[in-house]
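#structure-requests
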Amino acid sequence: PAEIRRYDRRREVLVSGNIASGAFAGDVRAAVLAKARQVPTPPGYSIRATGEAEIQEESFAEIFTALVLAVIFIYLVLASQYESFTDPFTIMLSLPMSLVGALVGLFLFGSALSIMSLIGMVLLMGLVTKNAILLIDFVKQARSRGETREAAILEAGPIRLRPIIMTTLTTIMGILPIALGIGPGAEFRAPMGRAVIGGLISSTMLTLIVVPVVYTLLDDLVHWRGRHRARTKSA
């Protein structure tokens, strides 16, 4: 060879290539590695992905860590503001509903699960909770004024529907140019916008139905535990 290449202080033979238009990097990498593992290698030799493929694998691991940290930080902030450990669970129910919508959005647009789409899912963690916050906060304020739980929930839905729809639509309209892939290099950023739009639509549609139901169930559970502790102390 004209030169000796080394990687991690070991000699290497580098085979590189670019991905054709219309193909996904993750699918191509998996197919190439699957065929490469079928090649018999002598002791001391190995076939592995390097370069952008290796960086992408590391980024996937780090982005999932960021996703978990985002959920933890959101719970801590909500728990401190509401001074409750159960109310944040009701609000954070929007998070799994948004992830389902993000995956559906990627599927409908024909986008793969990439680093940019995962970044969009991390962004969703902070965006979708605002719908449940608007709803639950109104319910808690109404109950503090003496209204019953059912009356507060029935009043919160119609009143909070307009601001929830307005904030969701403005966010979607702002991200739409990114999702449509307009401009140079937009195909790299498009999965992020598509994941965010899909997550916002699904969370908005389901929040108005699921969150009040879960809030009622958790509130009943809290009252049941309170009565159970009172009977235990009196006994």
